[in-house]
From TrEMBL, chain B:
GO terms of biological process kind: glycine betaine transport; transmembrane transport
A Pfam family this chain is assigned to: BPD_transp_1
Compartment annotation: Cell membrane; Membrane
Span of domain ABC transmembrane type-1: 15-199
Broad class of where this protein is predominantly found: membrane
Keyword Membrane: yes
UniProt feature coiled coil, ranges: none
Organism annotation: Propioniciclava tarda
CC per GO annotation: plasma membrane
Name listed for the protein in its UniProt record: ABC transporter permease
Length: 242, 214
């Protein structure tokens, strides 16, 4: 415990390009870039699958299948295969972000799909009966109703990305994982533990931000959360963190 | 492929360790999650705190938890017990909610019928409620099993040998073969565990397999 405090209270560790604020910023940038790219892919695709009902089977299997792929191995393969083709510092960052995106798409896709799929058919029928076009039904009814589950998907993707970005320090990218990996290399347990505490705090902070955004963005009409009955054939528990 | 054949014994050994590190937490985690899940359904006031606490636990990235475990447990950083305890925590965090949801999916009429037949609360829980919750619990257990296999490999970064060591070794030597073999072995292990849980859940829920109810 004293080792962690000693590391965290040393002013030298809070300055410069290897300092804690710089590492936190790097970590957040990786997370944000990944989430934006993954959402740009996963949200439209998930909405489309939910709206048209096509490719459900593929979504469920993709999500379950991706869970079994070990992140660390994927990261190393991406860097070894793609790294030499990219010049400069980006040789490590681009493959890492690519792997993070690959990991973040399935939960986002599944959240968007499940959100639309869970919309009360009566609401959908009522919208159609009022003369709404297919597009209006999607954006005016299904999307707002899907937001709780859609945010759930984004949130678990964000946590997964924060966790995996930590591991990505093993392939020489920045972020808070550096403290863990570099500490390990020089057997400095204080630095490792301090890094671990910071990563955990960052993950909790990111989760908190999502919880707040969720509270603001979701229509109050959807909030009185009756606990929905569980679909016994296809219960979908929360997504795990890598 | 030749690399794999040449290192069959090594990969096999790592696979066994990997399976051990992934399965022990699964079993212990389930054993802990059942009573906790029961508490959460029996005393609704406990539901929110229990679910929130497990959610927060699940938020902590695995590498961070692996590094902090020695501090909490007072063990050396290379002790595999750190990994087992960390994964047990994750498993419990995931399963408490699943068990609670599974138990509350048991229809109230069934519970009342069991009570009316003179079945006491403990026997009712073991012989009626828990078996009926098996499909939901098994679904959560499958997720936990598959993600445990993936998370165990991360422990290679702090020097605990298992299939993940193939990743770090391969990367250090700029050599793809061991990494690919490791990935395939991890996926195969996850698949085997997944199928085993499905088979086990089927075996203990014979009523779900029967013909349609008349």
């Amino acid at each position: 415990m004293n080792l962690i405090l000693a590391y965290l209270t040393d002013p030298a560790h809070w300055q410069g390009s290897g300092g804690i604020p710089a590492r936190v910023l790097e970590h957040l940038i990786y997370t944000l870039v990944t989430l934006l790219v993954a959402a740009a892919i996963g949200v439209p695709l998930g909405l489309w699958v939910g709206h048209t009902g096509r490719g459900r089977w593929a979504v469920v299997n993709l999500v379950n299948g991706m869970r079994s792929v070990p992140t660390l191995g994927l990261l190393f393969v991406a860097v070894l295969v793609l790294g030499p083709r990219i010049r400069g510092d980006l040789a490590f960052v681009v493959p890492s972000i690519l792997v993070l995106v690959v990991l973040a798409v399935p939960p986002i896709l599944a959240g968007a799909y499940a959100g639309v799929d869970a919309v009360d058919p009566l609401a959908r029928d009522a919208a159609k009966a009022m003369g709404m076009s297919s597009r209006e039904v999607l954006f005016g009814v299904e999307l707002p109703c899907a937001l709780p589950l859609l945010f759930g998907g984004l949130r678990s993707a964000a946590l997964q990305v924060v966790a995996t970005a930590t591991i990505a320090a093993a392939v020489s990218v920045g972020g808070l994982g550096r403290l863990l990996i570099d500490g390990q290399a020089v057997r400095d347990y204080g630095q490792m533990a301090a890094g671990a505490v910071l990563v955990a705090a960052l993950a909790l902070a990111v989760d908190l931000v999502f919880a707040l955004v969720q509270r603001v963005a979701i229509s109050p009409g959807l909030v009185p959360a009756r606990r929905r009955p569980i679909d016994r054939k296809n219960p979908t528990p929360a997504n795990p963190v890598a | 492929m030749t690399w794999f054949l040449d290192h069959l014994a090594q990969v096999g050994g790592l696979l066994v360790t990997h399976a051990y590190l992934a399965v022990v937490p699964l079993v212990v985690g389930l054993a802990l999650a059942v009573p906790l899940g029961w508490l959460a359904t029996r005393f609704p006031r406990l539901y929110t705190p229990l679910i929130t606490a497990s959610g927060l636990l699940y938020t902590i990235p695995s590498l961070a938890l692996f590094v902090l475990m020695p501090l909490v447990l007072g063990l050396g950083i290379l002790n595999p017990l750190n990994v087992i305890v960390a994964l047990t925590l994750y498993t419990v965090a995931l399963l408490v909610r699943t068990v609670a949801d599974g138990l509350s999916s048991v229809p109230e009429q069934v519970r009342q019928a069991a009570t009316a037949m003179g079945i006491g609360p403990v026997r009712r829980f073991v012989t009626v409620e828990l078996p009926l919750a098996v499909p939901v619990i098994a679904a959560g257990l499958r997720v936990a099993a598959v993600s445990n296999v993936s998370i165990v490999s991360v422990a290679a970064l702090i020097g605990i040998a298992q299939l993940g060591s193939l990743f770090t070794d391969g990367f250090a030597r700029d050599f793809l073969d061991p990494i690919v073999v490791g990935i395939v072995a991890c996926i195969v292990l996850a698949l085997i565990l997944d199928l085993a849980i499905v088979a086990l859940a089927r075996a203990v829920t014979p009523w779900l397999r029967g013909g349609r109810a008349g």
